[in-house]
Structure formats: structure tokens, C-alpha cells
Amino acid sequence: MARSAERLPGQKPLPDPDEAESRLPPRKSPPPRDPLPAFDLGSRSQPSPEHHDFLGTTSDRLSRDPVRMDSKAFTRMKRGKLVPEARIDLHGMTIDQAHPELIRFILTSQTRGLRLVLVITGKGMREDPHDPMPRRRGVLKTQVPQWLRLPAAAQAVLQVSEAHNRHGGSGAYYVYLRKRR
After folding, report:
1. Would the pLDDT of 1 be above 60?
2. Which CATH number is 152's domain given?
3. N or C: which end of the chain has fewer CB within 10 A?
């Protein structure tokens, strides 16, 4: 309705726009914020590891495996007090030669009723410092625990762990076999 138009009875006059703003309560400004603490990029990040060995060594993985055999026998085995009843030396064999030999040895050892056998893999060849590709040392050392987890041998194997120094240390494995049923 225009200002010059007549008001109807009972109608209040429209307020002047300048007056309307002056009658409103003043806006409250938000409370002042505390200044943000200084931020340095990466100040809360964890320090990066010294090396990036994502899978860990075979020895580390075996040491983290749960103990599935008698704990007293396991302790004696790790201390080198239990004498292996048989042993196989895969040292110097290729993967194609070593895999079937290992499976045959494990299964025949279980058939004969043996409980603790020693598998000698060797530590592997030294790393070539001029090789641009990083490689794991000891192909057999890495493969043997994996082969013992495959279905052919897994039904016979109860525990695999690195041998004590008197039985070959990190170049050999104790394989504790299940009782034959």
C-alpha cells in the first residue's frame, strides 16, 4: 500500500523504514574467540620407522606365531635341549628340487612316528651391494615355512620355529610334527 493512500479503519500506519531499524534491539556480536594455537605441519605425526620392511623377516613372523605345542617342550626346543630325530639338508638345492624333497621328508617322518625334525635351508647368498633391486636373502629360508603351511604338509606339522644356534641357528628350522593317528 502506498504512503499516500488512505488507511482503512483499525489499520496501523506503516513504520518509516529508518525508524524500524532504530527500534530493533542491537545485534549481539559473537563472543570473541581465543586465537588458534600455532600449527606446524606434521607436529603431531608419529616418527617414521627406520626402515620399511612391511612384511618383516621370516624369523619375526615365526616368532609371532602362537605356540600350538606343549609349552614346556617348546621352551626346551627353543633352547636347543631337544635333539632332532631326523634332518634334511636343502642347502644348495633349487626350489624345484627342494619342495618335493621337503614334503616327502615331512610325511615320511610323521609316518615313522618322529616328532622333531630339523630342516636345514642355509642362510642364503649374500646381497649384492651393486644390485639396484632389493631382494630377500635366502630363497629357501623364506619358502620353507610357507611350504609347511600348504595342505600337503600342514596336516603333519604342528609347529615351525627357527633352530637354536647349536642346530644351525637362522639357517635351519625345527619342525615339530603331529602324532600319527
Report:
1. no
2. 3.30.1370.110
3. C
